[in-house]
Amino acid sequence: MNISQLLQTYQDRSGEQTNRINEYVARALLHVVHSHILSVTPSLVLTLCCRDNHTCNFYNEMMSILFRSWGIAPLQIVTVEQGLGRQQFVAGRRHYNLIFTDSYAAFAEIEVEAYSQDYNYNEYYYIFLQARDHLLQPEMRRIFAHCWRHQLINCNVQVQMATGEIRLYTYLPFGDHSCANMTPTLINYYNGTHMHNPLQGSGPEAHIIGGLEGRLLLTLGLRLNFSVVVQPPPRDDQPMSHRGMKMLQRNEVDLCLGSVRQTVPRSLLATSTHSYHQTSVRFGVLDTTYKLSSFDILLYPYPTTIWLAIGGVFALGALVQLVMDRVLPSYPLQSVIVQWLNLELMFVGMPMMQTPSFNAKRIYCIMLMLYTLLIRTVYQGKLYHLIRTHQLNRLPQSIDELVDHNYTVVLSDEMHEMIGEIPTVQYMQFHRLGSNSTPMQTLDYLATRAQDNRLVAATGLNFFKRFNRLRANETQMKQQAPIQFKLIPEDVIDLQVTMYLRKHSFLIDEFNDQIIRMRSVGLLELWARWELDLSYLWTEQALNFEMLGLQQLYAIFLVVLSGLLLSTLLFLLELLSLRSPQLQRCFLSQ
Fold first, then answer.
1. Do residues 169 and 156 lie in contact, with contact meaning Cβ atoms separated by under 8 Å?
2. Which of 407-437 are b and which e, b meaning 16 or more Cβ less than 10 Å from the residue's Cβ?
3. Pairing assessment for the beta strands 408-411 and 429-432 based on DSSP bridges
4. pLDDT digit string (tens) for 429-450?
5. What's the alpha-carbon Rg for the chain, to the nearest Å?
C-alpha cells in the first residue's frame, strides 16, 4: 500500500471546504458502509485515485473524518498514482469496493476489471465521484459505460452537489428501447439520517422510486401482478385532491392517492380502500418568533418573585447599614459612602473597598456574602445556558389560546376547506395561499416572516416533521441558527389517509386484503418511520447551539453605556461643585 501521496498532501490545505459539509458527507458514507456494506461483508477495499491535488486534499480530510467513527471493521486502503497503472497492482480479491475518484480518467487507471476477470461472482462498487456540477453527468456516463463494458452491473455513484446535497446514481442498462442505456438514474439522496427515495417525477414520464405511497403501490403491483404508470393531475385553480378525483371520474386513471383523506362526499363519487396511514392536522409556530431578546435573557433566569425578593434583601441590607451607622459611632461622610459601596460590591461579587471595624458589621457582611454567592452562581449558570441554547418564550398551548390572541392562520385552500367548518377554529382569521400551494409552501411562507409573532401555520403533522428535518440538515452544513416549527399540543382533526378507486371497482377487495396484511405485520408503520425519521432531534443536539455574538449581548452594552453616561454626568456636576456652594455639600467631603 503506497500512502506517500497522502502524507505529502496533508501539508497543502488548498481545495478545503467547510468542515461542516465535510462531516455531512462523511456521515453519508458512514451510513452506507455501516448500514449496507458491512451488513453483508466483514471487510472491504477502499481505493483512492484522483488527478487533481485539490480533490486529493478533500479526500484526505474525508478519510480522517471517516476513520474517527469507522469502528473495528477491517479495511484495505489502496492508492493509485497517476501513470503507474499496472506497476501498482495489488494482488487480492476485491468483492466489495469503496472508490474515491474525481473523474473517469482517474477511475479508469484503477483498472477494476483486472481484479474481477479471474472470478465468476459479481463485485460491488460504491464510487464517490467529486467533480464540478456541470461535469458530473458526462463523467458518470463514462464510468457506467466502462462498468457495463466489463460486465460490472453493481455500480453506484455518490456525488456531492455545490450546495452540499448528497445524491446517489446508478445505471439501468436494460431499457424500453436499448440494452445498453448508460443514462445516470437518481435512486437516492441523503437527508441527514438515511438514504431517501421519494415519489418523484412530473408529466407523462413520471415514475415511482420510493416514498410511503410509492412503496405501497410497488408492493401492491408485485403482489397483484400489475404495472403502474404515474399520471400527475393537471394544474388549475382547484386543490390537487379535487383534480385527482375528477381524473378518476373521467376514467383517466384507475386510482388516486397521495395524502388523500376519507370524506363522505368523495365516497359518493369513488370507492375508498382501507386507511393505510393515520395522521392529524396541527397548528405550528416558528421558534425564532419566540426567542428571548437580549433584555429578556438578562431577566429570564429568575421569575418575578425572586427578583422582588433579591430587591427586598438589598433594601433590607441598606436599611441595616443605615441603622448601624446611626447606632455605632459616627464616621465622616466619605466612610459612610465606602460602606454603601461595600454593600454594592458584595452583591456583584467584588472585593470590599474597606473592612468594617466593628464585629457586628463584619458578621453582617459575611452573611450577605454567603447569600449573594449562591444567587450569583445560579444566575451566571442560567444566563450562560440561555445565551448558548435556543430558549423560547412561552408558546401557545391550545387552540383556544390562539383564538383569544387573534392569531392569523396561514394555510392552503384545501386545508381551509378541511378545517374551516370546525367550531373551534371557524372564527379565526385565515390567510389562504391559493389552491396550487403545497403544505411545504405554507411552512416556507412563515419561515420568511419570522418577525410576525401572530402567524400560525395549519397543515398535516407529517409536513411539520419533514420541514423540521430538512432545516435541521441545512443547519449541519451552514453555521446558522436552525428554523424549526413548534407544534401546539392539540390536534385540530384526525385524518385517515386512503386511496380512491373508481366507483364499484373490481380491485377493492384485493387492495383491502393486501393493505390489511401489510398493516398486520407493521410494514406500513415501518415505511412511515423511514419517511418521517425523527432521529435528527437527538443527533443534532450537539449542534443545537448559537454562536455567542453581539446580538445576544447588546443589552449588556446598553447597561454599561447608561452607567458611563451617569458617571459622566456626575463628573460634570463635581466640576461645577468647585464653583457652586450648594453642590459642594453633595459632592465634596473630607
1. yes
2. bebbbbbbbbbbbeeeeebeebeeebbebeb
3. parallel
4. 888 887 677 778 888 888 888 7
5. 34
